[in-house]
Amino acid sequence: MVLKGFRSGVTFWIVAVMLDGCGSPPNNPYPAAEALKNILYTSFEERPKHLDPARAYSANELEIIAQVYEPPLQYAYLQRPYQLEPLAALQLPTVTYLDHNGEVLADNALEATIAYSVYDIDLRQDLAYQPHPAFVQTGEAAYRFHDLSAKDLEGIERLQDFDAVASRPVTADDYLYQIKRLAHPEVHSPVAEMMADLIVGLRPLGERLALDFEARRKQGGWLDLRPYPLEGVEVLNEHHFKIKIKGKYPQFRFWLAMPFFAPMPFEADAFYAQPRLKAKNITLDWYPVGSGPFQLTENNPNRRMVLERNPHYHEELYPSAGEPSDQALGLLKDRGQRLPLMDQVIFVLEKETIPYWSKFLQGYYDASGLASDNFDQAIQFSGVGQAELTEDLLLKGIHLDTAVTASILYLGFNMQDPVVGGLDPGPTRLRQAISLAIDEEEFIAIFMNGRGVPAQGMLPPGIFGYLEGEAGMNPLVYDWVMGSPKRKPLLEAERLLKEAGYPHGIDPKTQQPLVLYLDTTMSGADDKPLLNWYRKQLAKIGLQLVLRTTDYNQFQQKMANGNAQLFRWGWNADYPDPENFFFLLYGENAKASKGGENAANYRNPEFDRWFLAMRSMDDDEKRLEIIQKMQAIVRHDAPWVFGVHPKSFSLRHAWYQNYKPNLMANNGLKYLRIDAALRAERRAEWNRPIYWPLALGLVLFIALLWPAFWAYRLRMRSPAR
């Protein structure tokens, strides 16, 4: 028995060493057969709730469906500032203005005379849908899988279980069908109300659909939208349609780059409407069907989601031009290559940041964001405050990409509040003093690991109207010193407080420090440092900040009723236009009185007048001049403490190529390239088995068993007595 155990133990160690020396690294979480394939590996933390293009709006949803669906337009991948270009359309839409009588107006017609804008869209003629069972026909108008019985569905649990698929060309009618779906009562599109106010005839269509859908639901069956007319959309032929909207709204062109306006074949709507399929969770929200570069072939939110190349994708080429620096950065190496450049994108469920980070360093994820847990391991700051990669990451050939996001985080004042609100000199000086006292540079350093830039006004970099340098500085808070903005000394804030009627922060009514209230939902232990920091910022000028903590629903109710005093808020741009930021302070959008996004309930007639003039203008010198006037007004009135434009930090391996941060586009996966050979080489290098522990284990194993083995041998050789 001893000899047998000895032999088997030695065999185990020898086999272990041999296995460690062959094939892919032993810790490789993927099949060895994938090592040299053109696959991007990334992750997701929670499953997308909606993959229906009429419903999806959150970032993790758009990350998937923007690769699957194709609206008429897209953002140019390399160009900055952001600009639109054709995608499914042949060229950018032409826009015609009409008066109330339907007569054509000049392009420079006064906005007050424009009753309608008509967007004329010509489609490419080579668009086709991904393979899908919804398109399989048994006759000219008969579909094999549109009326499935329980018996038909035996053995079918996923979309991939159907034994036949087909495709067909995309037509203008499919775009019309999708626009109608925005008004469908069962869809609950997040943009339904806005589009009903904008697209001619969409609201009456929604009202009619609500009545008919209720009747159809009682009878059972599918509500086919094709027979319902929609006044605001005219299909001229298979590849040409027009959208008619109310008034002049140039920002509508940005909506044409969103999946809300991607095509939807009626066959897919009919297919997914079957109750038996819904019972199996085979729905449009789970299995999208589009004409984009990728198709979702696996959706297992407990494990992974897989995008694969759409075999019917039309010809689209990698861009041949971008910014002047793109050539040197290697972003034009694939100019003219057909897209997509990858065969697969695999999203792996990874809920924790530490395991993800470890796998990224091992080469098993191709790119990574930066969480607080690993920030110090990845980033160091130079003597001038420049973020740089640590030496360990540089040795691995990892790249750091940074970009200021098209968003803003701010501290808002309720302009209806009797203490901090209103446009009288007293409360205005109070808000200005607080704006000066709150050190946003310190906030960025302490709470954002340097990942942000102080906001000088309402517009982030990259949005038309944002100015660099001294011209774009907020002169009420900063001085221009030696080529950069420097926050004014606290003496200036104290002067403003005195003018506001609160010398040294003292309320003359109580002879005590003026008490202000920050309404918030933050109440956890992790939130205390930030909240204490705000207290200290106001205490610097003698003010006392008291927290009023409520749950989320109560907080939202306070904001809706205009009962908050100070609050933290933020905004991410829907599209790269100054209107999408300035509307946050337009008086008619006040949250308390109008239910809009103006959470500060700010109303300044001069600002509102300029806003109405600016919002429908083209990006020219006149618009830029008006924007600077609007910036000056809100800097003076200070309804917000203009806080921070967050900065995104992302890491990528050397084999992850053609990546350029594009904070507007969501369909960027088609441009990326993976050098699979380099990845396999680096994975093998970074995950090379360490043999000496095995060898040491073998030596120790032999040393421990040798006495027993030797005694056994002696006993076997001894003559029997």
Can you give the helix content as a percent range? 25-40%
The CATH architecture name of the largest domain reads Roll
Q: What is the quaternary state of this protein?
A: single chain
Gyration radius, to the nearest Å? 31 Å
Tell me how many strands there are: 27
CATH C-level of the largest domain = Alpha Beta
Helix tally equals 22
**Straight-line distance between termini:** 22 Å
Brief synopsis:
With 721 residues, this protein is α+β, with helices and mostly antiparallel strands.
Question: Could you walk me through the main structural features you see in this protein, from its secondary elements to its overall organization?
Answer:
- There is one protein chain.
- With 721 residues, the protein is α+β, with helices and mostly antiparallel strands.
- It has 4 domains: 2-21 and 689-717; 70-275, Dipeptide-binding Protein, Domain 1 (Dipeptide-binding Protein, domain 1); 330-404 and 649-686, no CATH class; 407-648, Dipeptide-binding Protein, domain 3.
- 31% of the residues lie in helices and 18% in strands.
- It contains 22 helices and 27 strands.
- Strands 12, 15, 16, 17, 22, 23, 24 and 25 form an 8-stranded mixed sheet that branches. A 5-stranded antiparallel sheet has the order 5-4-6-8-7, covered by helices on one side. A 4-stranded mixed sheet has the order 1-11-10-9, covered by helices on one side.
- Mean pLDDT is 92; it is low at 10-22.
